[in-house]
Specification:
Blueprint lengths: L1 H21 L2 H8 L6 H52 L5 H7 L1
Length: 103
């Protein structure tokens, strides 16, 4: 169960940072090829991305309690941010499925 919560927390952090990244015009253009992101999608991506980051932190707290959960939450957020940054750098098309769902 603990491993599942850890994987879910990382997935929530990854999805949150991916959505926040896709809300920026430059990354939207790299992933979709469209020049401008629709305003409705941009707002939805930002809100859902922030919720994903919050869910990552809450899952880490739930898994390990307040003492180590805070440290784990920050580390998971850092790791998921790095994973999204590397994805956007080398394989931005991998995030196209997330972008299509938001339109």
């Amino acid at each position: 169960m603990a491993e599942l919560l850890l994987a879910a927390a990382f997935a929530a952090g990854y999805a949150g940072f991916a959505l926040l990244g896709l809300s920026l015009p430059r990354h939207w253009r790299e992933v979709t090829g469209q020049l401008a992101i629709p305003a409705r999608s941009c707002t939805a991506f930002r809100r859902t991305g922030a919720a994903g980051l919050g869910a990552c932190f809450v899952l880490a707290l739930w898994r390990d309690g307040a003492a180590f959960g805070c440290v784990l939450g920050v580390l998971l957020l850092c790791a998921s941010a790095m994973a999204v940054a590397l994805t956007l750098t080398w394989r931005p098309q991998w995030l196209a499925a997330i972008a299509r769902r938001g339109c």
